[in-house]
Backbone:
């Protein structure tokens, strides 16, 4: 049986897709990232899952939590969906797009981040790498925001208390703002848990893989 998956949120943030997401700004971004059709919000319905795994997600700022199922895959991109049609898209465990949260992340270039996660070791600190994100403004225009990010080592250890997971902190800065993402990887390098920035209004999202 497929579990009931949805985001119970405050009415002010409703889960219906804003009309602006479906207009030209969204189309431009998805063409640029090669993800046309994958990152769109879909009508509220029973998701047709493409795998048995589940993803538990909470967004403290909007008091939302849900367990999502995978509904599409293309290369290393996986799209997870709620019953409400809200979708979260990840590349290698790194968030690249959201639809249906209101202040959505339209796209994100995470090539530098994925390289950092592959190479991060212990307390070593990486150099900076670029990270570009896109959003829609109030006039449905695509706005790009550029950050410089780097791996920030832990003060003592990068592992969970039980030693099973390795914690990696990532600091991203721009002339106007900054955020810190946290990733927990298992021994194979698979992202098991994370705390990732979505947008100024939605802020952080926390994810964890549900054991099969």
Residues:
């Amino acid at each position: 049986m497929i579990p009931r998956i949805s985001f119970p949120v405050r009415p002010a943030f409703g889960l219906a897709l804003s009309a602006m997401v479906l207009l030209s700004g969204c189309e431009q971004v998805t063409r640029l990232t090669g993800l046309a059709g994958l990152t769109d919000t879909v009508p509220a319905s029973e998701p047709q899952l493409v795998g048995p795994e589940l993803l538990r997600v909470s967004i403290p700022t909007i008091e939302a939590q849900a367990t999502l199922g995978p509904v599409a895959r293309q290369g290393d991109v996986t799209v997870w969906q709620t019953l409400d049609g809200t979708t979260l898209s990840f590349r290698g465990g790194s968030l690249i797009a959201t639809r249906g949260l209101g202040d959505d992340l339209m796209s994100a270039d995470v090539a530098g981040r994925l390289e950092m996660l592959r190479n991060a070791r212990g307390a070593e600190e990486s150099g900076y790498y670029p990270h570009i994100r896109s959003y829609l403004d109030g006039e449905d225009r695509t706005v790009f925001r550029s950050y410089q990010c780097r791996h920030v080592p832990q003060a003592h250890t990068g592992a969970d208390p039980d030693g099973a997971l390795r914690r990696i902190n990532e600091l991203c800065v721009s002339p106007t703002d900054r955020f810190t993402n946290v990733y927990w990887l298992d021994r194979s390098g698979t992202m098991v848990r994370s705390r990732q920035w979505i947008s100024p209004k939605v802020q952080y999202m926390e994810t964890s893989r549900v054991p099969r």
